[in-house]
Design a protein that fits this description.
The protein is built from 5 helices and no strands. It is mainly alpha-helical.
């Protein structure tokens, strides 16, 4: 589909895009792993039942920008409350729910301030402000789906522009 004079450029674009997108998805896996570990460890230390399950679900849902951490926290609070009720620890229900909320809030702050800017900017070789702007623009253009696909789309656009910009004299 590519004109023969642009085949070399297209080959470079495809190679660079694939490389950066693989790095991006490795970054996502790293972030999910760190968030799972952070949340589960904090909940284990506090003594919340089913801490590993809650941390696993929270880290997994963290992939969805903005709504994921909220959904993970709500699900975690429900699981913690139901676990305390099933153990017959009626007096610990509200404290467990409170602890889960605090852990998720703290983990989300750490994720937003430290993990996401560093991991995503290094994985796609972009400045953290570029990543932030890409997510905001993606959200404005296509809502939550746009936010999820903002960084991969931005990465591909950046590679294409960089490749063809080098040809302009």
């Amino acid at each position: 589909l590519t004109p023969s004079r642009y085949e070399k450029d297209m080959s470079k674009i495809l190679h660079n895009s694939k490389s950066l997108l693989v790095r991006y998805f490795h970054g996502i896996l790293l972030e999910v792993g760190i968030m799972m570990t952070l949340e589960a460890t904090a909940l284990i230390i506090i003594g919340v039942p089913n801490a590993i399950l809650i941390g696993f679900l929270g880290g997994l849902l963290n992939v969805i920008p903005y709504l994921g951490p909220l959904m993970g926290a709500i699900l975690g609070m429900i699981l913690a409350g139901l676990s305390e009720l099933s153990f017959g620890s009626y007096d610990l229900v509200f404290s467990s729910i409170f602890y889960v909320a605090i852990v998720f809030l703290s983990a989300n702050v750490i994720d937003n301030i430290v993990l996401q800017p560093q991991i995503y900017s290094k994985s796609v070789k972009a400045h953290p402000v570029e990543i932030f702007l890409a997510i905001i623009i993606g959200g404005k253009l296509a809502g939550v789906v746009g936010m999820i696909f903002a960084i991969p789309t931005y990465t591909i656009i950046k590679v294409v522009v960089k490749q063809f910009n080098s040809r302009i004299k």
